[in-house]
Amino acid sequence: MGTRTTLTTLTACALGTGALAADEPIPPRPLEGEVVVSVTPEDEHQLRLIDRLATSLWSERLGLAPVEIQLPADRLDDLREAGLSPRVLVHDVQGLIERERAEIEAVRAREGFRFSERGARANAPAHDLAFWDAYRDRLEIENYLFGLASAYPDLATLQQIGASVEGTPIWALLVTAPDSPEHPRASRPAVQWNAAQHAREWISPMTALFLADRLLAESESSPRVAGLLETTEFAIVPIVNPDGYDYTWTDYRFWRKNRRDNGDGTHGVDLNRNWSYEWGGSGSSGDTSSDLYRGVSPMSEPETAAVSGLALSYGPRFAGGIDYHSHGRLILWPWGYDTDAYLPEPERTIITGLSIDMAGAIDDCTGEPYTPGKATDLYPADGTADDWYQGATPGYGLTIELRTNRFDPEREHVLSSALENWPAALRFAEGVTQQLRIDPTSPLPVLAEPFTPTTIEARFLDALGTLDGATPTLHAQLPGEAGPQAIPMTLVSPGTYKADITPTDRRGRITWSLSAQTTGGQTVTFPASGHATLSVRTQQSVTLLDDDAESDLGWTAEGDATTGAWSRADPGVDPNQPATDTSPGGTNAFVTGAAPGVDVDGGVARLVSPAVAVPARAGDLILALDLWRSDFPSTDPLVVEVEADACGDWVPVHTDFGRTGGWRRVSLRLTDHVSPANSLRVRFSIEDRPSGDIIEAAVDEISLVLAPSASRADMNGDGVLDNGDIAAFVDAFLLFDPSADFTGDGVVDNGDIGVFVTVFLAG
Ligand code: 0X9
Ligand code: ZN
């Protein structure tokens, strides 16, 4: 980030290359005398002053909050005179840049310049993590690309996709498995990963190059990657803006745009305002000197033309693109041109869900907190790559803002950024290319009432429109039945299907799965492996807790949030709460920040249940509740946790991002996560991470049921093992009923008697 329309750019930095010694050019020192400070504007007047004085913004945004700005040291007094108290973070920006550069040179010298030798190209080593020890210039990155292409002639092709304003080649590495009859190359979906549209965002080409390196490094060792390469073509463009990138190494470290001569003494078009989707709005500038200058016309720049041309060359196969930038740790989905423009469904759900998954993958990798959000949450910007991918191709588009909070993170971040983005990039590729993915619309039901339909509803995410609409099927294995029933699912709304399972018995558990086929005959199942389970509420089920929040059953509020603690209250009072509770005839729910205008701030708010005694019986423990939370979409989930051991070991059993809005019923099989011995406690935690969003949550109608697992020998389904079951077994046996097939060999014969007796005696 670090740029706004009104901020002046340092176009004066072209000076300085005039007085050259024969062998040693004097590098320009465009940032001499500049400092970086933190200030907190408190009114519009101060904000405008900061905007005027700043030569560059180091924070993500400018607003009435602490901001980091770069400015000439001799303007500090102007800030002080306006009542601001600047705190100096960098005393000498030029010195900092020079130190960082010296460090890079030291790394190069130490490694014997092996990545930077001219002509190293084809001999450059592949999969050498030392490459990510430092930032690399264009020569080094291109050498590495050539090295990869020559090490993997069967999988990788280096293609020049165009040339920059100054005629510099723009390279794409195309990576996919060789052609095969099952997955003809010509029909594989394509995914594109771009970086360095913005010249100064040096961590982005390093990250994108790493993705290319990993695709090849893991092409054999990882079944996941091998499978993706067989079904997908990857196009990686590590340096979209080679001229600008060179310029940041030779002249001015913080150059953003390309190097177009605008003909009026200024240089550069902001490539990420030059794309042809929604080009020319208020989130870009017509002023040639602006860092956000959009160019004379959409795709006027050969760089954007080359990269968009590559995506369009895939035609209907194009599945999605990620445009890598820095900084801010953000995963941004369209639309980015207008705060009030939203993607239609189901794209919106698909891309928001995918972005949240990707943030989770990064978090799992390094713990680095990336925030998923709509691109306008950062600021509206038009003519950008993310919106173009989304709007001008059949695929999806994302912008990822990488680490950290500056354009020149310490070089230790280079490898971390690369590592953490690899699993997220894979997730993206899977999400946008898998022909068909089955995604239940709500948390899976886990408790079924006997003789009552339980509905299973799922979205059949079908990025390429290949679902055979006649094929969505629910497969349910009911207790006592020989094989699964195949129940055709019915259409609810485009892409969403449902079907019911009705337990016909008071016994046991039901296992189920979903399947569908593409028009090409590919079968997709959910869950991807195995099946899901429904516990049937038998006559023997025990209700351990039934709380409609109308009376005090001993819940306590905990946590370190400064405001917004949980309480039992009528939720309609605060406009940021649900309008009513959910209990028939009731008034109260458990809510955060019950008072009007109060929400969870500055930490976590927890609601902890009293200890609930758990009978010593084997079975499924099921927690069901109505749940509500604000702030869609957000990375501040409401987490349901269980403590099974009275030792304070809380195990998360559900993380809710509020994706569907409104109250919804959630049921959770706790025994999938914990094995409570005597008692358990449940708690609901919601945290306001530093973002300062409005965070509110509510829960109501909380029940905890123990559904004892019925023995297979409970032949008559009355919940007890007694003579009646022996009689029922004999009846079934004599009728060759499949329920008597205790050996599971498909026939009812003498062998089943012994197994029945064993199961009966085991209880
Ligand atoms: O302004 C940009 O182009 C991106 N940020 S950066 O600091 N790397 O320059 C953000 C683009 C996000 N996309 C949209 N708002 N459309
Ligand atoms: Zn950028």
Number of strands: 34
- How would you sum up the major sheet? 8 strands, mixed
Low-pLDDT stretches are 1-22
**Number of DSSP helices?**
13
Share in helix: 10-25%
User: Termini, distance in Å?
Assistant: 66 Å
What is the strand content?
Answer: 25-35%
Mean pLDDT: 87
Structural class, from secondary structure content?
alpha+beta
What overall geometry do the principal axes of the alpha carbons give? globular
Account of the 3D structure:
Helices cover 22% and strands 26% of the residues. It is an alpha+beta fold and 763 residues long. Helix 5 (203-217) crosses helix 11 (412-433). It starts with 33 loop residues before the first strand and ends with a helix. Zinc ion is lined by residues 198, 201, 272, 325. N~2~-sulfamoyl-L-arginine is lined by residues 1, 198, 201, 272, 325, 332, 336, 375-376, 378, 381, 384, 386-387, 399, 401.
Summed up:
Strand 30 and strand 31 form a beta hairpin. With 763 residues, the protein is of the alpha+beta class.
SSE layout:
Blueprint: E1 34-39, H1 44-53, E2 56-57, E3 67-72, H2 76-81, E4 87-90, H3 93-110, H4 138-151, E5 156-163, E6 169-175, E7 190-195, H5 203-217, H6 223-231, E8 233-237, H7 242-250, H8 302-312, E9 318-326, E10 330-333, H9 347-366, E11 371-374, H10 385-392, E12 396-402, H11 412-433, E13 437-440, E14 447-448, E15 454-461, E16 473-477, E17 485-488, E18 490-493, E19 496-501, E20 509-517, E21 523-526, E22 532-536, E23 542-547, E24 556-559, E25 566-569, E26 589-592, E27 604-608, E28 612-613, E29 619-629, E30 638-643, E31 650-656, E32 664-669, E33 679-687, E34 697-708, H12 723-734, H13 750-762
Helix pairs in contact: 4-5, 5-11, 9-11
Bound molecules: N~2~-sulfamoyl-L-arginine and zinc ion.
